[in-house]
Amino acid sequence: xxxxxxxxxxxxxxxxxxxxxxxxxxxxxxxxxxxxxxxxxxxxxxxxxxxxxxxxxxxxxxxxxxxxxxxxxxxxxxxxxxxxxxxxxxxxxxxxxxxxxxxxxxxxxxxxxxxxxxxxxxxxxxxxxxxxxxxxxxxxxxxxxxxxxxxxxxxxxxxxxxxxxxxxxxxxxxxxxxxxxxxxxxxxxxxxxxxxxxxxxxxxxxxxxxxxxxxxxxxxxxxxxxxxxxxxxxxxxxxxxxxxxxxxxxxxxxxxxxxxxxxxxxxxxxxxxxxxxxxxxxxxxxxxxxxxxxxxxxxxxxxxxxxxxxxxxxxxxxxxxxxxxxxxxxxxxxxxxxxxxxxxxxxxxxxxx
Length: 353
Prior knowledge:
Rossmann fold, six-stranded parallel β-sheet
């Protein structure tokens, strides 16, 4: 199968530091290639994903989120990938523009990586008339309401990269974006109250991220807390492997939460607030703890060594592997391609999990 993948134009694939969507796309491209498919990726020129690549922008487009730059990127992508059997679009604007331009071949599948909001609900409603939509968790799928979702497919982790670790580093870990939604301030307070050192690796580039850190996180940090900023992949993996647990006190309905699956792959238990997809990723009392508030998270820290780290790794291998994600998408692509005569608005029928 000739498969065209379209990445957003903001971050290289794979990302040099923070970039969950781009990490997933890199994993998917490699997973589909391993299944024997001919994969071509439309991305930015700075990408290094080991499949044939095309691009409009040699460097990541700036400013991030600029609709004019995104539109130029996706229109160039659809033209470049016109010879594919199927296009898998990971951008927000691409499927809508393709529908407006009446690009009906090759067929398109789109994965929605972000939340469903008042702002994008109309766009997603129109997108669903043209392209089957993939949600990235069951919680995410429920948030679409009446907008049809063709499949629920979890993100996949490269198990050869996130290898099991011993968890003997004597610290807790937070990794993610520096914002209130990620609950960094809750992680700092829970670790402090549990008398554990906390290592923080966080994206902190935007003005709002810096303001949140200065106003709500920095005043909480003590001498045992280690603020390291963004880390490259190898360093991030090693921190996960040796952490006693990952703290993920998310305060919003996060569609997936890639960092939790990555921690499980590294055999590291996860302590999370039960929002969004967290209950689908964490098996309470077996691979971590779902905590209703800071008090429960603080108490759970004392129980992390009761978790058998082998269970964490096994859960990741069974549900969140790169190979599983690629196989699930392959099944969806075939379901779409086997129904060439159906109207775009009725294309569904892929399996969910």
